[in-house]
Amino acid sequence: xxxxxxxxxxxxxxxxxxxxxxxxxxxxxxxxxxxxxxxxxxxxxxxxxxxxxxxxxxxxxxxxxxxxxxxxxxxxxxxxxxxxxxxxxxxxxxxxxxxxxxxxxxxxxxxxxxxxxxxxxxxxxxxxxxxxxxxxxxxxxxxxxxxxxxxxxxxxxxxxxxxxxxxxxxxxxxxxxxxxxxxxxxxxxxxxxxxxxxxxxxxxxxxxxxxxxxxxxxxxxxxxxxxxxxxxxxxxxxxxxxxxxxxxxxxxxxxxxxxxxxxxxxxxxxxxxxxxxxxxxxxxxxxxxxxxxxxxxxxxxxxxxxxxxxxxxxxxxxxxxxxxxxxxxxxxxxxxxxxxxxxxxxxxxxxxxxxxxxxxxxxxxxxxxxxxxxxxxxxxxxxxxxxxxxxxxxxxxxxxxxxxxxxxxxxxxxxxxxxxxxxxxxxxxxxxxxxxxxxxxxxxxxxxxxxxxxxxxxxxxxx
Length: 463
Ligand code: ARG
Prior knowledge:
Layout: H1 15-21, H2 24-27, H3 31-47, H4 53-71, H5 84-96, H6 98-101, H7 110-146, E1 151-156, E2 159-165, H8 166-191, E3 193-194, H9 210-216, E4 221-222, H10 226-231, H11 234-260, E5 268-269, H12 288-311, H13 326-349, E6 351-352, H14 354-360, H15 368-379, H16 383-400, H17 409-415, H18 422-427, H19 429-435, H20 444-460
Parallel strand pairs: 3-4
Antiparallel strand pairs: 1-2, 5-6
Helix pairs in contact: 3-4, 3-7, 3-9, 4-5, 7-8, 7-13, 7-20, 8-11, 8-20, 11-12, 11-13, 12-13, 15-16
Arginine (ARG) binds next to helix 7.
């Protein structure tokens, strides 16, 4: 079989080389980007007088036919064609003849072609994942709206710390995913530049106009330096990093969903639609989806480290090592997309067990800090001493087997006479949550402002 580059070769390729060298088995996923990029390139060549109108039309019609063939599973992907770029170009010449088909690759190289196709793929996926993040943020905000008064323990060191609302807790995640969304936006803006036209590494003597191609493909502008354009894979690393941060966040959320659905917590029940059973233990209902998302964080991090390592120390410009850039990205975007879709649905259908959350607040002396704060603000006691006195009250409650929020005034006064009626009010768990009116705090007023902030953000981003 004839190779496009065989002019200087005397011997045919080994079958081993063909199998080892080819990327078509996976880069065929870039067929749409490849064909659209070629149509824009041919259009630009025509506008610059490098192709005639008739040649451009024949090329574009041929490319559209190939698009249909691939979409309808009528295109045969062959390992000998090496990659999607050469497979499409070869088929084009079969359809419209070599005379004209052979002109498409004028002022272009596979190096800038692959940089273009892969970049367009990454930018499209960026939009896709960004939209899924918006949907997830919306779900969290909607659940928050319904749970302003759902009291639950806030934790540090996984020990009961202070009372919060479920709304407040979920809004923490909404803010993380908002930053993730913004990270994707920033990456899009930074990377939305056209590498095509850089050719092999040094540009071209043909009278091309890269601004035309950039406009046709909706890029902000062409990239500045041809050598950078074909050497750079930052755009791919960025999506791998951005997805990794999303998974760092989703893995924390999923970890909590797993804990919360355990018998020890009983804070939520995951819908039957998104839980699984055991093959031996009839009573089991397992949070497999949350566990899988948590587990997939490993492969997503792996893909990032893998490409960082591949790119490390590569001399400029293109090196074949860079063909290794694609599979990890394909895997990470697929993993992110499917995980975000199912996580959103799982959250929407989960049952939050408000009573159990509130009951859990009656363990662990969650309002102890409030008692110390009361001694400081109402009794003018230095915080360190207030901390000590409150510690004594906690020890008393512990010895009586009750929570500090259930202690009587008499008992408090047995520790220190300074306590009065107001101490009982500050120990009330709802009051404790409401007392934290500071900007970003747990009081409903603060939380409502946080909800509104997210609503505003979602409105600006049209969801
Ligand atoms: N299949 C190659 C890749 O994915 C396309 C670029 C090949 N360029 C070259 N000079 N061999 O990286």
